[in-house]
Amino acid sequence: MKKLILVGVIGVASTVVSANTPLNIQSGQPAPMGEPVKSQPTKSHAANKLVGDSYASFSAAYSGAKIGADDVGGDSRFSGVDLGLVGAQGDLSAGVGFTYQADSDWKYSEIYSKFGYRLFNQNNNYGIVSTGVGYAWLSAKDYAIDLDYFVLPVELEVGHYFQSNLAMYAALGYKWLWNTSGEACYGDVCASGSSSELDVDGMTYKAGLRYNF
Q1: How far apart (Å, rounded) are the C-alpha atoms in residues 36 and 33?
Q2: Cβ proximity of 137 and 127 under 8 Å
Q3: CA–CA separation, 8 vs 16, rounded Å?
Q4: For residue 113, which of 85, 149, 145, 76 has the smallest C-alpha distance?
Q5: Mind listing the pLDDT tens digit for each residue in 156-209?
Q6: Are residues 143 and 107 in contact, defined by beta-carbon separation less than 8 angstroms?
Q7: CA dihedral sign, ordered 81, 91, 153, 77
Q8: How far apart (Å, rounded) are the C-alpha atoms in residues 142 and 1?
Q9: Cβ neighbours of 12 (radius 10 Å)
């Protein structure tokens, strides 16, 4: 116990001596200050992108088309809906979709797959060019006529994300349709086959919403 008290007293005495010792202050000129350093704003490439490089999305859009050929009476204007699912990795994407359209005489249905390349993705805006393959069937409303087509579309889609997972977009494209089969019936008499004279092509356009999940 005595040793502990002695150690404590020595410690207190050392503290008092140190406290009473004057500080040795050296005089001199302060080092010259250089030019003030200007902070440089850090640019983040990710800050310019509202959408990441990997995502899946569902789209729903108004869909229109002006397709036809002189051999089948000229162009017809179709309107309807387009639904699609797309998965993206980096600048590449792939997806599937379904289109239903109609005019006064025909009903048009199409299933398709497409492959896209993202041209830009900055400031909440994006652009994608795509192509693919599809299969369509065309049915007359007032007659027993059914036509099937192999479809080759190309399309440019441009959109703007107003939320992190929701965008509005518009698309403009062109598609070629090659007749693969057809059937026409008049009463009890039916005929089937395919003909290049039934091939059609034309412009397509869409406007809708895309939701990422």
Answers
A1: 8
A2: no
A3: 13
A4: 85
A5: 999 999 999 999 999 999 999 999 999 999 888 999 999 999 999 999 999 999
A6: no
A7: positive
A8: 114
A9: 10
